[in-house]
Amino acid sequence: MPPSPDSTTHPDYRFTLANERTLLAWLRTGLALVAGGVAVATYAPDLGVRWGSAAVALGLVLVGLGTALAGYRRWRANEDAITAGRPLPANWMMPTIAAAVAAVIVVVAVLVGVEVLGR
Predict the structure, then answer these.
(1) In contact, 51 and 78? CB cutoff 8 Å
(2) Would residue 1 count as lying in a domain?
């Protein structure tokens, strides 16, 4: 009879699978931000200034890239903690990405305001 896996040395697979689903959510969010950047670059007007849509598109693409990379980093740190039986590390990425998205929204609001007031 083969030995049964020792529950103290191997983490519950449900934790690993939940961690993978979280990574996929981060990747979907990053992809959506990149797609938004492509859409702005393709379809948006200049947004009040000649470089407006290009700046917003670049910002969205960079935030999307950062989100995907941050999601992978978080997945790796969580996976290491799960395997070692340690508490999960603190999450500094969520407020950082939320602030970056908020900054892009503020830029869009200012550029739309310039466009509307310039008419």
Answers:
(1) no
(2) no
Single-letter amino acid code for the residue at 70 = A
Report the alpha-carbon distance of residue 56 to residue 53 in Å, rounded: 5
CA distance 116 to 110: 10
Are 75 and 23 contacting, i.e. CB atoms less than 8 angstroms apart?
yes
End-to-end CA distance of the chain: 81
Kindly report the pTM of this predicted structure.
Answer: 0.82
Residue pair 24/68 in contact by the 8 Å Cβ criterion = no
Ranges 40-44, 70-74, 76-80: which has the least confidence: 40-44
Domain residues for the domain of 94 are 13-117
